[in-house]
Structures are given as C-alpha cells and as structure tokens.
Amino acid sequence: MSAPGDAAPLRDQKILITGPTSQVALPVVRALAAPALGNEVWGLARFEKPESRAAVEALGARAVPADLASGAFDELPNDFDVALHFAVVKSGDFDYDLRANAEGVGLLMAHLASGRAPKAFVHCSSAGVYEYAGNTPLREDAPLGDNHRAMLPTYSVCKIAAEAVARSASRQYDVPTVIARFSVPYGDNGGWPWFHLLMMKAGAEIPLHPERPNLFNPIHEDDYISQIPRLVGLASVPAQIVNWGGEQSSVEAWCGILGELTGLEPRFRETHDTIGSVTLDLTRMRTTLGEPRVALREGLRRMVAARNPELLQG
C-alpha cells in the first residue's frame, strides 16, 4: 500500500478534546478551533487554575470543568461528532490514577454514547505500554509491559488498563475507536526535548539508560495535528491500534542537536533509574496516516526559537 497523501482538515464538526491544557493537546485545540474551519470545539479538564481555562477559551474553545475519575459529566453534551481523548493523570497514586485514566475512559464513552455517539473516538495512548525490548522496533502486536516505572510509577499500567477499557467500551456502546500509541510529541509548546534543553541550560546531568543509544520516535506537533483527520478515519468497532511517532532518534542525538543550536553542552549520566529505549515500527502508521514531514533538526530549532529564543545561536 502506498503512503496516503494530504488529508482534508476537520471542518464544521462538533469536537471534544480532553486534556486541552496539556503540552500535547493545547496546539490541537488551537488548530481545530481556528475560525476558518467552522468547528465547535469543547475542552474538558479539571481547570484547577483559572489561567488554564482562560488559555483554552482564548483559542475559541468552550471549557467544561470535569474530573474523569468522578464520571460526572452534567455540563458536557452528548452529541459530538468526534472525541479526541488526550487527558492523562500521573499523580503516582494507583487507585486515583486508575479511576481517572482507565475507568474514566469507560465512563466518558458511556456518556457520549448515551446521546448521538461520535463517529470516532480517538484514544491517545502511549509507546510506554510496550515491554522493554532494547533497540528493537516494536510493532503493534509486541508484548506489553511496565517500562516507565522508573520515572512514572503508574503510567504504563494505567495506559494499558485504559486501552483495555476503550476496547471493551467501543464494542459495548458501538463507538468507532482508534488507539494511537504516541511516542515523543514535541514542538513550539515544549515536550521532553525541551526539558532536556532546560537541564542543559542548568548544567544538570541528563539520565541515560546504559543500553545505548536511547532510541525513541519524536514527532513534531505540526505532524501529529495534520494526521488527526486520518486517525479519525481509522476508528472502527472493534477498535484499531496504531503506533504514532516520527523519525527514529535518540536522546543523545537530539541533545547533541540542541547543543549545536545553542552552544550548550549536554552532560549525561548512565543509570537504570530512567526510561530505556522505546522505538516503534511505524509501518502501519506510514500506510494509514502518512509520513511525518518536519525534520527533527528543524523542529528542534523552532522549539528553541519559540520557547527560549535567547539561547538560539545564529
């Protein structure tokens, strides 16, 4: 199968975006709430900080306060065309995080299905669901495991549980669903490489797993936003699963690029108390969502220019 061409953007749709204040989802809100597209965008989050709600509303979206763990969606309509579920809780409390991340998916899908069920429920999962396999690229049928425990104790377990709930709710409520296993999203709104940049600026050591290189698949926000319409088109009953990432790179390599762009010197420290390689086989993604287009060096340069322009050389 050849790689697909450009997908038409979502237009004139009623769209729910959970976790709209996050580094990953806020650029999605900005893109889909653009007046020219005619979408009606709703953002669901706890909105504990007034400035977070203001930021979402300033982009033209409607803010709905709700806690996924409670399952109380009294202020949320149930007639959305598309639901994009980016919300994630990483409190470290297994009981609460399972209620919010796993039970919350089922409760949200039940609420949406109680009215005019969406034509697509896009569940943003994580490459963190895979069993650690060193530098072996992982297909969607690779074994699952708890590979993020060293840094985020509840993360992998909750992401695996949430996928299972999304799969069962898709069948129970007949909601077309796609589960996208995200690698390392980054861009003008930040991301893991930006935290590494801040560590470089502070002269702090960046942890590396001893089995090097530490490989991942960073994907720029321009690319993942442009692929959302095709993700929506993949939704089905039963749910489909697709890896979601960009060109393979390593922590060592992108920190090296950041050093070239800023003149800062990355300092590394090998330790088992960090996330090891999680690199993806992107064959299914390339044939269904298309090829990422933003080269890593250009994406990182743009990130530095957007967030720390004082550090950018040349």
Low-confidence stretches: none
Shape: globular
Q: Biggest sheet, strands in spatial order?
A: 3-2-1-4-5-6-12
How much helix is in the residues? 25-40%
**Average pLDDT, to the nearest integer?**
96
What is the CATH architecture annotation? 3-Layer(aba) Sandwich
- Which CATH first-tier class would you pick? Alpha Beta
CATH level-3 fold name: Rossmann fold
The termini sit apart by 42 Å
Helix tally equals: 9
Strand-residue fraction? Answer: 15-25%
Counted beta strands:
14
Describe what this molecule looks like in 3D:
- With 314 residues, the chain is α/β, with parallel strands linked by helices.
- The protein has one domain (14-189, 218-246, 278-294): NAD(P)-binding Rossmann-like Domain (Rossmann fold, 3-Layer(aba) Sandwich), CATH 3.40.50.
- The protein is built from nine helices and 14 strands.
- The strands form four sheets. It has a seven-stranded parallel beta sheet, with helices on both faces. Strands 8-7-11 form a three-stranded mixed beta sheet. It has a two-stranded parallel ribbon with strand order 9-14.
- A hairpin with a 2-residue loop joins strand 7 and strand 8.
- The N and C termini lie far apart (42 Å).
- The model has no long low-confidence stretch (mean pLDDT 96).
Keywords:
314 residues; Rossmann fold; 3-stranded mixed β-sheet; 9 helices
